Amino acid sequence: MSESGPQHPRIGVFGGTFDPPHIGHLVSAIDVRDRLELDTVILMVANIPWQKAGSRRISAAEDRLDMVRAAVADVPGLVAGDHEIVAGGPSYTADTLAGLQREHPEAELFTVVGADAAAGLATWERFEEVVERSTVVVVDRPGAEADPAPLPGGAEWVRIEVPHLDVSSTDLRARIIEGRPLDYLIPPGTLRVIEERDLYRDGAAGVTS
Ligand code: ATP
Ligand code: MG
């Protein structure tokens, strides 16, 4: 860890659709940052989440980015990442990591995923590039095996235990449609964005993930 600091930043990349961001994302990101002594965890907002495209309507990338920005505004060490939105097209972590390496050549990168997403890691586009460019970090998620199957090529990964928060964006979209409470599940700043833009209430973003 002695190499940390501005010269050799340790950067976590926590990718997601964040439709909307919630306490499960934020507590995980904060605990990973703390445990691995990362300088920054980027909540990287997918432009077109290719594994979800077609199954339901995804909120506009700009709305999801602004919801994440609002969520992390007061949290040191967490930032919202617009790299994939700026790049456009479908979002592949391998490309995002390559871009970050160009931006921060001295950085050590960590790819953070929940245990459910970890189970599908081998299906990621150019997965071998992801493990070459970063250390894979898996956080617990209720309903998913804590330990993913061995990664292809026997790649190393790190497991970080986080509070088991059985919360998902899918459930939260349903809550919004049903008018049920969201306090403490979604940060207040994010709730304001949802209210101001009247997101989700028409049900168009659907309730299936
Ligand atoms: P959806 O229900 O729409 O799939 P989600 O809650 O799973 O939404 P995503 O944007 O799909 O959120 O997830 C982004 C990342 O956050 C994934 O790696 C996922 O595993 C992780 N994640 C989401 N919710 C939690 C949670 N409650 N605890 C730990 N990790 C989580
Ligand atoms: Mg998900």
Structure description:
This protein is an alpha/beta fold and 209 residues long. The protein has eight helices and six strands. It has helices at 23-35, 61-72, 83-87, 93-103, 115-118, 127-133, 169-178, 188-197; strands spanning 10-16, 40-45, 78-81, 108-114, 135-139, 157-160. The chain has a six-stranded parallel β-sheet, with helices on both faces. Helix 1 links the parallel strand 1 and strand 2 (40-45). Helix 2 runs antiparallel to helix 8. It is globular. The model has no long low-confidence stretch (mean pLDDT 91). Adenosine-5'-triphosphate is lined by residues 16-19, 24-25, 28, 113-114, 116-117, 139, 141, 165, 167-170, 209.
* Spatial arrangement of strands, main beta sheet: 3-2-1-4-5-6
Radius of gyration: 16 Å
Query: How do the helices and strands follow one another from N- to C-terminus?
Result: EHEHEHHEHHEEHH
- How many helices? The count is 8
Count of DSSP strands? 6
How would you characterize the largest beta sheet?
Answer: 6 strands, parallel
Overall residue-averaged pLDDT value:
91
Features:
single chain, 209 residues, alpha/beta, 6-stranded parallel beta sheet, 6 strands, 34% helix, globular, binds adenosine-5'-triphosphate, binds magnesium ion
